[in-house]
């Protein structure tokens, strides 16, 4: 063998780097701990073969949905040779495997093992695994510290408020104890706010974290000063409780997003393909397609997806490129034809050579378009930050005015400053800062339950603002696979016979015939002795003569008839039978379009497919405004033109050719069957076959927006009530604590209503 | 008033203990999979030695 161990080498680089990143970060403690303890517990036999740096691999397991499945997955993996331990994570639908002997147990073999017990699994790219987990854990630690501090400081504060006399030494002791707890907490737990506020200030911008940081730091500093001086305007409890509530909001916000992203990554890795790489000595190695490098020769069997971009070097076949171009008709290709990752090889097995994207290929063009399109989206300013831009200056001016006012009234600088800080604390946007995240958390959780993964943090806000919905046809409005259109005209015997031939081919037309037959008869008996001629059709010889299923020329259909159908069936003694196909709309496409239209959406269909096909689909879905045969560039141009007219555009698409348009639109959605690039470019991904998911998503987005405004109103109403008190110098630390906590709680409870609310997409 | 000399450290100590326990649980990965942990609690068989931690 020329490249001995090619498989295990490449696996080493992919799977085992996980172990290395893990050991670098603290977050790996669970895998590392499992690694460290398992040899001792697992017995001496295994311990001897374990290399010093233990390696792990993480697999996404699609259908691990219950405790029993989790158990089965773990047991199957632990029983596999070379595995030291396996730990499933049910919430993430992932399982982490620690190898005892990596020669014996590769990721591929584990995936096969799982397939054997009925689970579909895929290896996760190392960079997908750790993302967000560290952050999440650090956040939770901050929440815990802030919670501890808030409770204990409240313990002292309540005692103080309960009536000990000012100037009492106990009083002073309690303030000092509060300070000892509060100051480290503020310094540690508040960091996410400070760094975000600082980053915004450095760019000359204001965000919600600026007034938050100011209020927390100022109130802590002021309280410390008062404690030293022996005063009683001590706000440690307010400062830390505020921090606690805000951290909870941030943590939840961050967690739902991490969860949605994790699920999206699982989908992508489960879609990933194997590549059968042919070594120079002719031996075949199986590799995950992301490890394919330019120059590798890859065998692609009929019915499989091409794992990489490249050119065909051996064989001829027909290719379904609907995921790439939106074109539903298969393309005939031969040697030197360019093929794209994700297209399906329909005809015969071929060999391809992987090539890097060249400057003039479709892919390179799409990559270029994506780059420019994505830059535009970075400029979006989130709702909360927009509110902060008005709110923060107003609050800071108010506090300054209160200070100046009291100075003029002759109150002395110390008392005036106390008032000013009381104003800042009361107006601190605790409820305001929770207003948006609380609703978004509820919304994301709601969508997650309905199979819609929201990936972008500001996705809901951008979705809510859209007024034009642009759809792609193939794979978005339609199911993306052809189905038999004239089934009613075909007799039972003919359909049964044709399906018997067709069941041996992976061609989508043949599959459609089989599906139609299955629907009518329940099952299909495959014929024997069938031969397939690539790009032409199927045939078999029976006692009565020859049967053929395939193109018009293959079945020798007269020229006059040839154009009337795409697939023909001939058998001895009867006239050629025509099969016509259509790419059927998703079941609820028309319903979804109608719902969008009721909500005053303008609807556009932009497709790369032929105009007859697009016209038919547009009519069936009820879309009057459609454009066919568009290149990716032209889709972007149309979207940019709409944006230039001041419209906000929602793009729904799945193909690679839609990816730039998805990135260019104000907001974008794609089905989970979409091309990888398109899913990555989208704000949300919906699972399942229902297009109504888009309607649900938009309804939720709009409701989220209106509830965020509701929450703003509640928060501001609260401020209106208490700010006059603060300015008048009537706010005591007790009032501050009560005012802030109740407003935060009301806002959060209001947001929770969204989780189960029944929503209707309204204009 | 001397009671405070006892009560305050006890209150803070217990709170701190709770915090420490939580942070330990967090660090040892017990919050990684809350759904799965719910099912693991119901399992009859003890965990296999190699997956115990």
Structure overview:
The complex is a heterodimer of chains A (763) and B (53). Chain A has 763 residues and is an alpha+beta fold. In chain A, 53% of the residues lie in helices and 15% in strands. Chain A has a seven-stranded mixed β-sheet with strand order 14-27-26-25-15-23-24, sandwiched between helices. Chain A has a six-stranded antiparallel β-sheet with strand order 6-5-7-13-8-11. A five-stranded antiparallel β-sheet of chain A has the order 17-18-19-20-21, with helices on one face. In chain A, strand 5 (274-278) and strand 6 (284-288) form a beta hairpin. The radius of gyration of chain A is 32 Å and the shape is elongated. Chain B is mainly α and 53 residues long. Helix content of chain B is 62%, strand content 0%. Chain B is built from two helices and no strands. The longest helix of chain B has 26 residues, at 2-27. The A-B interface holds A 26, 29-30, 33-34, 37-38, 41-43, 66-68, 70-71, 74-75, 78, 84-92, 133, 137, 140-141, 144-145, 148, 151-152, 155, 170, 173, 177, 181 and B 1, 4, 8, 11-12, 15-16, 18-19, 22-23, 26-29, 31-36, 38-40, 42-43, 48-53.
Secondary structure: elements and pairs:
The complex is a heterodimer of chains A (763) and B (53).
Chain A: H1 6-24, H2 29-42, H3 44-47, E1 56-61, H4 67-79, E2 83-89, E3 94-99, H5 107-116, E4 121-123, H6 126-130, H7 133-161, H8 169-189, H9 191-202, H10 209-229, H11 236-271, E5 274-278, E6 284-288, E7 297-300, E8 310-314, E9 317-320, H12 322-325, E10 331-333, E11 338-339, E12 344-345, E13 350-354, H13 362-377, H14 383-408, H15 413-427, H16 430-449, E14 452-454, H17 459-464, E15 468-471, H18 473-477, E16 478-484, H19 492-502, H20 508-521, E17 531-533, E18 537-542, E19 545-550, H21 559-562, E20 567-570, E21 577-579, E22 581-585, H22 589-598, E23 602-606, H23 611-621, E24 626-627, H24 632-644, E25 649-652, H25 659-664, E26 667-671, H26 676-681, E27 684-686, H27 692-727, H28 733-752
Parallel strand pairs in A: 15-23, 15-25, 23-24, 25-26, 26-27
Antiparallel strand pairs in A: 1-3, 1-4, 2-3, 5-6, 5-7, 7-13, 8-11, 8-13, 9-10, 9-12, 14-27, 16-22, 17-18, 18-19, 19-20, 20-21
Helix pairs in contact in A: 7-8, 7-11, 8-10, 8-11, 9-10, 10-11, 10-15, 11-16, 11-28, 14-15, 15-27, 16-27, 16-28, 19-20, 22-27, 27-28
Chain B: H1 2-27, H2 34-40
